[in-house]
Every structure is written in structure tokens, then in C-alpha cells.
Amino acid sequence: MPREQKKRGRRLHQKPYEKSLPEPELDSNPEEKQYYQDEEVQHAVGQQAFYGLLDSTQIDYFKEAEGIIASNTFTSDEEREQFYEALWSEVNDIELKVSTDPTGSKIFERLLLAAPKDKLLDIYKAYSTRFSELSTQRFSSHCLETLLNCSRAFIASEVEQTPGLLEVATIDTENAPVTSAVSDFFAEIRNDIPKIALHPYGSHVFRSFLILCTGKELVVTSGSSILSGKKSLGGQKKVDDPATRHYRRSDCPAVFKQFIEDVLHAMVSGITLEGGRKMALDPVSSPVLQLLIELEDDLLRCNILSIIFPTNEGEPDFMSVSFLENLLSNPVGSHFLEKMLYSCPLSFVEYLYISFFTPRLHIICKAKGFSFAVKALMQRLNTKSAAKFSARLLDEVTDLSLQNIVLLNNIIVAISQHGSLETDVAEKVTGLCSGADNILLALLDIGSFENVSARQRSGANDSLKQRSILVENLLKTIPQLSDAIVESFIAFPLETKLQFTENTIFSHVVEAILSKSDLAIPTRRKLLNDFMGHFGSLACSVGASRAVDACNITSTGLNHYRERIAQELLANRESVMRSLYGKKVWKNWNMDLYVRSSAQWKGKPLRG
């Protein structure tokens, strides 16, 4: 039975059976209620953007083009350029229609990621006078966000060629056309900033614009982004885009600093105590508020913090304590509190540490979001305070439940930064595992070897993932326990070791063990001997392939073992090269060089 085509967008919409239900009266403000309704109604910024529909021929063409780009089967750069040029000619004069179409917007994002300067300027002209409504449209918001991100490299080049842009807040249309285009974008949305910033789609465009104006590094990965939704990244991660400088930190024109001032004035003037605290808990406005606090910190201001937390000395009032506890128990609020602790002045961090976290530790440490706040708090506190707080946290760890596992991970991260309490953590973990025959199985909460399954998927059990992270942290940070964990793994039966290595969660533990550079030579030989005869199949496994790569480090100085692994990979060349993960192992082990000249291969370090 064919499946319904997945819709593209940044938020979940009402299911058909839910649309007939009456809207619950949770807010007395009718404008705010209408603001978060489904996209069929009018948006807060103007009418729903609609510029026509693509016909079936155009949709089929764009779908085919998207498949060609994703497969990346171009034989030369000239062929790729010709293909993109044909795509640009196809979207010419219908940019608005393509941007607001679910299929067209995907291919348009790919075009923008590889667009030259003149093409970007043409898109800015096509979008002119419509930036506000495009920012709040379901599909065009993705395109506008990508357009802003791709402008970073060209603005950096203009600043480098015209240094005066850094000193004088003027717009040079001739020497800095992209900077001028971004200035026109801001001039058009200036009056709609508060509405766009709090819109489910517009907030992503708004944050992209702020990061562009500050020149901050924008990290975009295939799994997540502080700006993009997964669907947007799906269109970006497969594009062969060598211009990664688009997202690196860069200098920005002086006129952008004035834009930041105008934005902060427009946003801060509308924030109240109650409204600011609601924004902190809202999934749309909370990331915006986090970024605004970060920008204020860069300018040595704390206006927003002073509104949300009017008291910064003495005992916090009941409402502030209740709000902080609400942040810790809320998935959105906990991330807001983490980001706030990173960005706020150190004096305010110390105030919260003394007046809130320390006296209420026994209560708040059980909150779901406490680990996020602790992680930020540990990094901001000085060594003495962090050690004292870590010692109190260790006292709260009475078993190896998931909540305590997360606490231990945060304590170990703090230890790696401040260098203390290693012995205390080792004694605590040893005490918690005192009744177990195998410390590794006890830490992972596995009753026996028979319970280890190679088919356990990485997303199946969050508890196993957190426990795996704990073991990795112990291996890297607590030398008193790392040797015991390695010996526990060596004591596994061979079949269990192989299952452990192929498991998509536990393979990270095996990788951490094999990557230890301080392992004794007899221990390294034991580990490598166990895997001999199985490297061909392990290299093709999604989990075990990382362990095969880690054997680069394990076999350092053991040239005989290193060459035996290469011979085994070569003997299984056909199956290894048919596997996506096997190809990566083949590349990391420099097997092409080994095939051509084993002598040169022996003298060249592996990629790791």
C-alpha cells in the first residue's frame, strides 16, 4: 500500500481527526491564539504567500533533478556546471513560485548552496518587497534561510576587499552588492521584526539573519542544526558543497552592528516579566530568546536577564524559584537555562549557584533537565566551586539509574576540565558495582553475556546509550577504572566480543577501548588476536567498522599485526567494497596504496 508523501515544514500540524475538535481556550489573547493555528489561516505577517502552482511537467523535472544532484554522478566539473546552469534557466522568472512549492523549494535550496554571487543577487531582487511574507511561508522560509547563510562568504569577501566597511556604517552598492542586498532585506522586515521572530517559520529566518549580522560560526550538520529543521538539512547534507567557509566565523560590516542594535531595541522593549518567562518555555520563541541573550552578552549588556530575573542578590523570590524549577522540568526550558548559564555574566551564575542550586540540590537533581544546567554550571564555575559541587552531586548518586548515570557523566566532564575528584569517582563507581563479577556488564546493566545482541539498534534504548557514554568517559578520564574496564572486555567470550563490537551502541565502547594509546603491548596483542579472521566481516558492519578503524591505533608499533589486518581486508576486497562502511574502512586503512606498493604503505601513517 503506498504511503502518504511526507510533508515538509518545521512543525507538526494537526492530524485530520484533530481538526474537528474544538480549540481549547487556554489563552485570553485572541491574536496570539490565531497566531499558532494551522497554515491554512492567515499568518501574523500579511497574507499567506501564494504565487501560483507548478505544473506536473515542472514537478517531475525538479524531482528528477534532485535525484541527479543527490546521486552526484557527474563525470566532471564542467558537466556539473552545465547541469546547474540548465536548472537556473528553468527557475528563471518563476523564483517565487518555485520557492513556495514543496518540491521546488527542495531543489531551489540545492541551487542556492552552489550559487555564484550574481545568481544570489538575482534571487534577492526576485524576493524584493516580499521578504516578510516569504519569511513566514512554510517552504520559502527554508529558501530564504539558505540564501542568508550562503551570503556569508560573499560578504566576508567584500569586507576583505573594502576594509572601510568595517569602520563606517555605510552601504556601498557598487563595491559591496551582497551587503547592500542584506541591508535591503532588513529595511523591509524592520517593522515586522517582533512578529517574524516569534513565528513558527519566520523565527528560523530571523535567527539566520542575526547570526549573519554578527558573523558567528554557524555549524550545520547532517543530523541537527540550531536553525534548520531535519527536512531542510536533508536537502543540504547530500550537496557537494566545498564552500564550507559560508558557515565559518567572519568579520561583518559596521552597518550590521546597527542592525543588531535596532533588533535588540525592538525585541527588548516588548518583553515583560511574565511575557519573557513564557517565551523561555515556548518551543518557537525560546531559541530566539537564547540568541538575544547571547547577543546582549557580546555587547556587555543584560537587559533581558534583568527583566526575567529582577532579583540578582539575596534570596530569590518564590516566583523566581518556581520559574527556575519549571525550567528544569521542561524540555524546552532546560535548554534555555543551559544556554542562559553559558551566556549570562559570571556574577549571575555565581548568584544562582549560591542561592538556588546549592540549597535545593537534593530536590532539583531529580528533574529531567537538571543535567543540561549542571553541564553549563560546571564549565562556568571556578575549580574550587566546581569540585565542591561535584562532591555534593556524588553524594546524591546512590545507584546506577538513568538519572544518576547522566549525573555521573556531567561530573566526569567537569573533572576533565578542572582535574579533581578522580579518586572519589573511581571509589563511587567501584562501590556501585561491587556485587558484580564483570564491571563492564554492571555499568551497562546487562545481566549476562547472553543478553548482548548485535541487532540492538542505537535508538532503541536511551538508557543503554547513556551508559555507553559513561563507560567511554570513564575510559578517557578515570585511569583507576579504565584498566578494569579493558580487562572486563578481554574476559568476554569470543562470540560475545564480536556481538558487542557489531552492536550499534556498544561499538562506541569497543572503539574507546581500542583507541587507548596507553594500553600495554600484551593487552593490545590480546585484543587484536581476538579479532583476527573476522576483520573482513567487521569492516562491513555499521557498528563494527568503527572498531576496525580504531585498530589503526591499537596496531601502532605492531607492524606484523597491522599487515595481517591489511591482508585480511584485501582477501575480502569484493565484499568490503560493496559495503558503504567497508569503503570507508578501505579508505582509512590506505588499502589502495597497499595494493600498489606494500613497502610504501608500511612507511606511511594511516588516516585514523
Distance between the first and last residues' Cα:
45 Å
Shape: globular
The helicity comes to: 55-70%
Strand composition percent: under 5%
User: What class do helices, strands and sheet pairing give?
Assistant: mainly alpha
The tally of helices reads 38
Oligomer: single chain
Based on CA atoms alone, the radius of gyration comes out at: 28 Å
The beta-strand count equals 0
User: Mean of residue pLDDT?
Assistant: 82
Outline the low-pLDDT stretches: 1-44, 221-246, 454-460
Biggest sheet architecture:
none
Explained architecture:
- The protein is mainly alpha-helical and 608 residues long.
- The protein is built from 38 helices and no strands.
- It has helices at 16-19, 30-35, 56-71, 77-91, 95-99, 102-113, 117-127, 131-135, 140-161, 177-189, 193-197, 202-214, 230-236, 254-268, 273-281, 285-298, 303-308, 318-329, 331-343, 346-357, 361-364, 370-380, 383-396, 402-418, 422-432, 439-443, 462-477, 479-490, 494-502, 507-514, 521-531, 535-538, 544-554, 559-571, 573-578, 580-588, 591-596, 598-602.
- Helix 3 packs across helix 6 (102-113).
- The protein is globular, with a radius of gyration of 28 Å.
- The protein starts with 15 loop residues before the first helix and ends in a 6-residue tail after the last helix.
- Residues 1-44, 221-246 and 454-460 have low confidence and may be disordered.
